[in-house]
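Lecture notes, continued. The same structure-token format from the folding unit now serves as the input rather than the output. Read the line below as a description of shape only.
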């Protein structure tokens, strides 16, 4: 039997749940995340149906950029934001790992009533694959591995949050000993997270943990100093968008401490003249300023 893997995720406006899959199938397997629809309506299909006997239970770490708001299993998302989601399997005694993840709009156990929550983006790197719902026989879109990882390497994909609503992510990971059989392997437990829309997260609103976002010079040609004050330590990203809301460039990604922050960033070479939006995101909350390029 093929091996499958699923992983867990958390976010404010949606629920993310990850589940593990087996790793014998190096091409990955779709829709075995442990969600209510996996393996057939109501089955909660997981790779543990075939893989067992491992001496230790693998675990996984889920990180996102920008970071979801909230804490614990209750997380929040910012409407329309594109998140990079990273699933990193860990565990001793296994030479290979795989995964499978779904982000769905319902916990119903029927495929006809369950759809994707938000919009799936792309796989980042060659070890991850997106399986579109259109080719999954009525099952939701999911992410899985294209090749098993032998060194706890992360699986990465992008996902765009919807404008509103509550969603669910199902996921887990599978650790395999690489002997070509389903014995000596083990699946992590299914982890569930709830994502809900962050309140007051509009694109033009200042957030509670940031003061005085400013850009200098403005208008600018190639370099811009982005200055702001952080009221709490956090994961910070600065992105450049055109007026159609399309991402033009990632200008900054880092974790920063409380206090005044001044960052010199470089605009893309050959950037067309005109008006753009610079979006600062701190711990999932946003602040924006207009930037004129000439």
């Amino acid at each position: 039997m093929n091996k499958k893997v699923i992983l867990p995720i958390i976010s404010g406006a949606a629920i993310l749940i990850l589940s593990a899959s087996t790793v014998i199938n190096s091409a990955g397997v779709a829709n075995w995340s442990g969600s209510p629809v996996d393996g057939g309506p109501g089955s909660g299909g997981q790779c543990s149906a075939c893989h067992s006997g491992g001496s230790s239970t693998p675990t996984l770490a889920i990180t996102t950029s920008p970071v979801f708001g909230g804490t614990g299993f209750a997380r929040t998302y910012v409407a329309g934001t594109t998140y990079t989601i990273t699933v990193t399997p860990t565990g001793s005694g296994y030479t290979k790992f795989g995964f499978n993840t779904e982000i769905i709009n319902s916990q119903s156990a029927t495929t006809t009533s369950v759809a994707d929550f938000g919009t799936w983006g792309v796989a980042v790197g060659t070890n991850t694959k997106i399986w579109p719902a259109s080719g999954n026989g009525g099952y939701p879109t999911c992410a899985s591995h294209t090749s098993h990882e032998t060194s706890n390497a992360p699986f990465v994909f992008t996902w765009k949050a919807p404008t509103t609503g509550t969603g669910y992510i199902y996921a887990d990971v599978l650790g395999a000993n690489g002997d070509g059989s389903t014995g000596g392997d083990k699946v992590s437990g299914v982890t569930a997270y709830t994502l809900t829309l962050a309140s007051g997260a509009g694109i033009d609103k200042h957030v509670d943990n940031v003061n005085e976002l400013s850009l200098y010079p403005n208008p600018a040609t190639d370099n811009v100093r982005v200055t702001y004050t952080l009221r709490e330590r956090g994961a910070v990203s600065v992105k450049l968008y055109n007026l159609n809301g399309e991402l033009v460039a990632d200008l900054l990604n880092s974790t920063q401490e409380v206090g005044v922050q001044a960052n010199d960033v470089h605009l893309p070479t050959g950037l067309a003249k005109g008006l753009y939006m610079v979006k600062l995101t701190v711990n999932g909350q946003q602040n924006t300023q207009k930037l004129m390029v000439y």
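Point for the exam: DSSP finds no helices and 22 strands in the chain.
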